[in-house]
Design goal:
The protein is mainly beta. The protein has one domain. It has one helix and five strands, in the order βββββα. The protein has a five-stranded antiparallel β-sheet with strand order 1-2-3-4-5, with helices on one face.
Length: 82
């Protein structure tokens, strides 16, 4: 059986005027992307395949992103990571 070719992982990082990271985007697999951006003390998380996905506020513990992660953990316990 031949080895399957590795698909590239493309990482793009943008910096703010002070040199800090304000956005990081990772494209991987056949059509997936995860992006984290920060603006005005808020952090946003985006997860998509092709052009479908979701965005969630990731600024606060117990916020939108944490609730989404907990929902996935409850729905698909075999996928959990601790």
């Amino acid at each position: 059986m031949a080895d399957k070719p590795t698909q590239p992982i493309d990482v793009d990082v943008e910096h703010d005027s002070q040199g800090g990271v304000c956005r990081a985007s990772i494209r991987f697999g056949p059509h997936y992307r995860v992006e984290v951006s920060s603006e005005d003390d808020r952090t946003e998380f985006v997860l998509v395949y092709t052009h479908h996905g979701f965005r969630a506020d990731a600024s606060d513990p117990g916020g939108e992103l944490e609730r989404i992660i907990e929902r996935v953990r409850e729905t698909d316990p075999g996928l959990t990571v601790d």
